[in-house]
Amino acid sequence: MEVTAGMSTIWLQIGQCGNQIGQEWWKFVANEKAPNSAVDRYPFHTPDGKLSALSVDSEPKVVRRLLRELKTGSFRDSNILVGQRGRGNNWAFGYHGLRTEDENSLLHRTMDSFRKEVERRDSYSGVVLLHSLSGGTGSGLGAHLCESIREEFPMSYILSVSVVPHQTGECPLQHFNSLLCLSWLQRYADGVLLFHNDDVLRRIQASCGRKNEHVPALQPQISLSDMNTHIASCLAALMYPVSSLRTPSGVSIGLEPWELLRSVCPVPTTKFLYTSQMNKRGAASWDSMLSSIVRTLPRHSSTGNTHQSTAVLAVARGTGADTFNCSRQPIMMKVKQGYGCVSWNPQPLDYWTDPWNIVDQTSPSRSLTICANHSSVSDYMQLVLEKARTMYDAHAYLHWYWKHGCEEGDFLQAFETLDSVVEEYSAARDQ
Length: 431
Hints:
Layout: E1 10-14, H1 15-29, H2 37-40, E2 53-57, H3 61-69, E3 80-82, H4 91-96, H5 106-119, E4 126-132, H6 136-152, E5 157-164, H7 174-188, E6 191-196, H8 197-211, H9 224-239, H10 256-264, E7 272-281, H11 286-295, E8 309-318, H12 321-326, H13 328-338, E9 349-354, E10 365-374, H14 377-393, H15 398-403, H16 408-428
Parallel strand pairs: 1-2, 1-4, 2-3, 4-5, 5-6, 6-7, 8-9
Antiparallel strand pairs: 7-10, 8-10
Helix pairs in contact: 1-3, 1-6, 1-9, 6-7, 7-14, 7-16, 8-9, 11-13, 14-16
């Protein structure tokens, strides 16, 4: 059967974090045990069998490891773009690059390869960015690429998968980097899937803790790879083909990322998304899995306001997916109540199902993944604003940003942009 690239998405992984998540993500996509793997591969590959992806980093180490882990030749050689000097965990250095660079800069080389990748498909729909908010390359170059792609392809979608740093201990510049990157994403992206390192760590620890309840003293050791795998599993649940979005012939044309945006971003000014996932082996009920997810939701803001959601998407995969369809009305009502869906949105809920659980190959198993446009993001935005303003008022580290081409206006606009995000989420709540 001949299938064209169709609505193929381009996957752009940027910096150390983006490439490490990409490494785990492609392992899910390359799963040949999936029942429909022969046709499900097309949203992720060009007709010649290469991945529809670019791997970009200012240093070669992580990219080399990625290429060793993946099947030889998966990436097109021209889509592997590396530099020889890191960006010092500095947004300005990542955004502006080296002063001596011109047409040979990492940005220009990446955009040139990106254009050629777009030309390889008959219908380019959009790009998914994988990156962090704190690293110089992920935050700075990621922001610049997001801006450049929006300007060159204004009608296409941009979905960012952004990793939020631990609240403390990663990098003294992380609050500035996050402030600037988030403001660029608000301006140029259509949606942002936020994955908080602290939240991911807690979820994995809780999962390991349940497995080791009979040995309370056993403390699980969580690796960076474990955290990246968790994030990749959430992406797989949300973006790997589902039966309800296939063509009548059973082929996936890669609508999932863009249907996700349609479902959970009803208002263009509120685009930051919160994802939770529960995976169970055996015959766990969908209702009990949903209850476990709802219990972990942030309930109230620091000012005492009840958090709400403007829209929610639930994705049920695995054994008994048909039972989710049969009982969807009470389940979705519980989703609506648990996530506090606003009353002004007439259709705040959507759901997808698929009989294959891409998250876990064990049979029987099932996963429930919920993506919500949830107002708890405003708590994080306020934290970034507070930390960044304190540093800015003290003139801490600013010389590192002026040195690499940043200007005072960049910070002032970033503060204003994030303030507006907080206001938009507050206004989106039911009055």
